[in-house]
Amino acid sequence: MTTSDLAPIEASVASAPRRGGRPTTGRRSGVRLAPYLFAGPAVVLYVVFMLIPVLYAIWLSLRAYRLQAGGTFGRRVEVFVGLENYVAVLSDPELLASFGRLAIYGLIAVPLTLGLALLFALLLDVPAVRAKRFSRTAIFIPYAVPGVVAALMWGFMYLPSTSPFSYLTEQAGWGPIPFLTGSGLFGSLANIAIWGGVGFNMIIIYTSLRGIPDELYEAARLDGANELQIALRVKIPLVGPAILLTTVFALIGTLQLYGEPMTLKPMTNDISQTWAPLMTIYRDAFLTDNLPAAAASSTILALGTVALSLLILGIVNRKRFGARS
Amino acid sequence: MTATSVRVPLSAERRAAKPRAWGAILPTVILVIGAIYCLIPVIWVFIASTKSRGELFTTFSFAPGTGLLSNLADLFAYGGGQFGMWAANSVLYAGVGGVVSTLVSAAAGYALAKFDFRGRDLIFYSILAGVLIPGITLAVPQYLLLSQIGLAGGPLSVLLPSIISPFGIYLSRVFAASAIPQEILEAGRIDGASEWRIFRLIVLPIMLPGMVTVFLLQFVGIWNNFLLPFVMLSNQGDYPLTVGLYTLLAKGSGAPALYSLAIIGAAVSIIPLICLVLFLQRFWRLDLISGGLKG
Lengths: 325, 295
Hints:
- The complex is a heterodimer of chains A (325) and B (295).
- By secondary structure, chain A is mainly alpha-helical.
- Chain A is built from 14 helices and two strands; from the N terminus they run ααββαααααααααααα.
- Chain B starts with a helix and ends with a helix.
- The relative contact order of chain B is 0.13.
């Protein structure tokens, strides 16, 4: 073996790991087999519950049921129709409208959730702030409340007959606040998402802030920067990765909007059966029995999510590389 | 002001001290407002749960009522004790699903971080792509697939899909890569320990803090999930709390008496999870999540 000449270089470059002597054949086969056994359960579950459903949905989305002459009533047969379902779904005004509503909802919920999370995290990081533990814990509590239960609680606080806010405005003679009607719904639904999401995102950003060495701040202070300047010019850029991650998660969460409008639905007439895209998908799959359409919309929603996430990750990465060079 | 400057003559310190003393009030006020905003619905639901049916719609929202005990009795009597069953199901799905998911994720994360094997990159990037796919959009195809093999409808149809967590695997890999020194593994191998023994006795204890984090994320995620059990389950007795409370509320639009049941149900159901999260949050390694992306 000529590797012996290389050994010192290898050791210094690749550091310790390889120096530990050659294992015997028996143990080596153990080492070779082990990773497959350790990763095995995850890979099997991934294939069965993620990969196959995705492929199955794509396959279903390319097919359709057709009535074929024959017998008394004709037969229902499955045929391959190419992208026909996608064309049908994308020209369905109800689905397009639900994507529009989702966009408005997302444009309110995502920036406010992340903005407030960042603001609270930065404020928690101000050394002299009082009641830090109380605020941090209180803001984090909604994380433990399921979206459906959160929607239920807020729903009652929106409902004119039980709302404390509308109670006050009615006492003042202004009538109830239209939380559950018309465009008020967007704000009301977004508020549930903001309430549920701020705490978790705040903790992630705050944890990331705690990892910044104090010397950096001291240096900035010596240069005459005030706390606000430090927050804007030192802290925010340094927690960039955490903000990026929370943005992607907030976005994925937004596209999955389902439980909250479903829960509010019994309380108002303004949430239709197709208010959010996932509600339309559910209707197609289980109520009108149009599986190919449901599969096509699912595929579009999943592809849209992945594309948006990659877009954000791509933009940020290019910016970061740009800044470095 | 002058007292500080006498005690601390350093100019830099003085400059820092002045805005700090002043700038502590505004941040504190904003944070407390945020805290109140987050607590209001929780406080409201606890107060509303003390109201009898008549009081719910007639008295001021934040005025406590007199019906707490009868509401509790009604809740646990509803549908022959269905609420208790829903709670038990939530514990089962989130508890068992969380533990198994954590173990599966830890093993896979360890393999991906500490072994060099064919197919590793393919597995890793597939799982990374899985992080971006919203789990909820998979629920409908998962249902169709499980109903083909006759698994849909029962508890297993909720448990099994909950076990795979691409993000959990990703976090486990980040944690294993940073926390497990290669030397320890090599030493174990030289001592003749089998790979399984090394994993059980050396790797798992080191990975425990990371595993607690993955477990909490998974537990809360499964506990809060709505669409998957809503789509999968056909039997009311198998429902978790989220789906059960939803059905209460959906029926309540026809019978407002169920409103007070939904409210007390919501209040009772959030207590254990809030306690769990508050208790376990000190063991979280959330720097895993925020720092993970740097690699």
